[in-house]
Amino acid sequence: MVKIADMEEEYTEWDQFSSESCETLKWIPWFTSLEGHEFLLEIEESFVRDQFNLSGLKSLRNYNGAMSMILGPAPTEEVFMDGKFLELYMNATDLYGMLHSRYITTPIGLRLMREKYQQGVFGQCPRVECQRQNVLPVGFSDNLHNHRIKTYCPRCQEAYVIRSGEVHADIDGAFFGRSFPHLFLLTFPNLIPDQPPVPFVPKIFGFKVHNINSLIKIKLENGEFGKIEDEDSNSQDEMKLD
Questions:
Q1: Which tens digit of pLDDT belongs to each residue from 18-42?
Q2: Residue range of the domain that includes 217
Q3: Same domain flag for 164 and 137
């Protein structure tokens, strides 16, 4: 069994080796620039060093070594051939992810996530009737290694699995947590879609199929998307005014 102290000592050697070739490139900007990490924000070092933000995280595996890696230089390709380095790298990834779930709920984190959301970085809702509504990342658990990341659509208010072939599919859902999309929309209510989702209408040879209601239609009837004005009643009111 490898002791944490031994791993930290070996990491110090990798630290010196990396700094010669990577010079000023730090681990955090390197990590967030990797393919598949586009959803992640680059956390400020001051946030990482703040003991208040680390509350409850020091019990994570190889915490000291992982923290040293996060605050250190970017690694070189050669060190990824070392099994001990890979183990510590996974520990650093977990620690960074848990810090990330806290950072995105701060005022600056929310603003940065808003930029990504408005740019469509997180993708669009796969539901056709949502008309390519931008989605938000969400986790189904606040604990590591329970669920992969999902996406949440503010229009139909449903969560969707990211296709296994996509580069973001393997991100741990705990890196965003269960509360993020809802806190995000409470913070930026202007980003909540004005129009409710349109339910899909099943038809056979052009005729509507009765007694088959979609989940969206049921939610609309139950008022889960807020008060929806009836088009027929609106037209009748207009006729009365005339």
A1: 544 445 799 999 999 999 999 999 9
A2: 196-224
A3: yes
